[in-house]
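Bench log. Compound arrived from synthesis this morning; before running ITC I wanted a structural hypothesis for how flavin-adenine dinucleotide sits in the protein. Inputs:
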Amino acid sequence: MQHADVIIAGAGPAGSTAALALARRGFSVLLLDKASFPRPKLCGGLLTWKSVRLLERLHGCTADGLVRDGVVDTVAGGFALHYNGRPLIRDRLAYPFHLVRRSRFDAFLLDRAQQAGAQVRHDHEIIRCSPEGTVRTKRDDFRGRYVIGADGVNSVVRKCFGLPRERWQRNLAAAIEITVPREAVPRIPDVPELHAGFLPTGYGWVFPNNDGMVLGICGLRRRSENFRDAFKNFLHHLGVADGEGFIRNHPLDGHPIPYGNALDNPAHGNVLLAGDAGGYADPLLGEGIFYALLTGFYAGEALADALEKGVHPAQAYSERIRRNVMPEMRGANRLRWLLFGLDMINPENLGRYFRVRGDALADMVHGVRSYDWGRKKQWDF
Ligand SMILES: Cc1cc2nc3c(=O)[nH]c(=O)nc-3n(C[C@H](O)[C@H](O)[C@H](O)COP(=O)(O)OP(=O)(O)OC[C@H]3O[C@@H](n4cnc5c(N)ncnc54)[C@H](O)[C@@H]3O)c2cc1C
């Protein structure tokens, strides 16, 4: 049995950020991941302004520095919204989007955690975790004074919480995404595009980056939608004539996104959940990278405080989540039902909403304003 102050399950953005926060404060940290890094991760890789600000705060770097170092792939100063293939809105943004390729981005975050002193074990798939802090992998057993479950949406660590599966499953979005060469689609956009109108509670995206085009769709499965057919329909909107042939040549990959299942209480025994494992992705766009960085940071800080002062971390961690994260989750959820309602009723209403409220919505997406009724947002990092 190997020991550490904190065992972290999963070395994605949540796990690496928690490890960084703990290692910087001098605690022994063991990060376990089933993959060997750099590893692929299905994701659009779109970072909002709040994510870039948090990265600056965590890593003492600037957005320009991230671009120069190749961590950020593309910077986009605008966006476009389409409805059933028809352009609805095209606008510039007060704050740009930054696009990353996840294999590179996650390797950068992990490297920073290692430089701070965190130990990493690749190829260690966790199969069980106890609330007391014992973690079993297919290869070895580990024991921590605390454990952070940052092992993604299908978290094995979360199973030790004994939560009902039904609510979790109901609020998962299905997602399909592929990255193709630019010339594979007839129309090459110069800004990230969102596509509404072909899924009742979801949307599609086209993110152009230096490596190619990222095409994806996500949404709730409400009426047993066939996501493969929905993707084919999306390709049709993009002007790809032979969707079936395209799919045969570019095999599809899918992965769920938490989409309304953020946990109010992410602590159980000596275990905290962070990132997708706790359901922290916003239920409007499915933005999860920011919340993985943020909750990983909160979890690391709560445990460092607890280890220093001999207090239990659950209250401090849950309180920070309730104060800063849950209002965003609830607000984004309200907005989702409003926007998808407008989308179903009439695309003209959706277009009108964007024309009148577009700037305020962009501020909410970027975290300048809160999804909670558009109030000014003060982040605590
Ligand atoms: C198709 C798609 C597109 C997306 N696009 C965006 C986007 O553009 N912008 C955005 O902000 N968010 C996006 N998201 C959401 C975002 O990818 C996630 O919210 C984010 O990756 C969560 O980070 P995490 O660290 O919590 O988990 P992950 O990034 O999933 O990392 C979890 C880690 O745990 C490891 N692991 C899992 N199980 C085990 C186990 N049993 N034992 C050991 N290790 C394990 C995995 O190998 C992985 O390295 C998208 C998601 C999908 C599916």
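What the model suggests: Residues 182 and 188 are 7 Å apart (CA to CA). The chain has a mean pLDDT of 94.
ITC booked for Thursday regardless.
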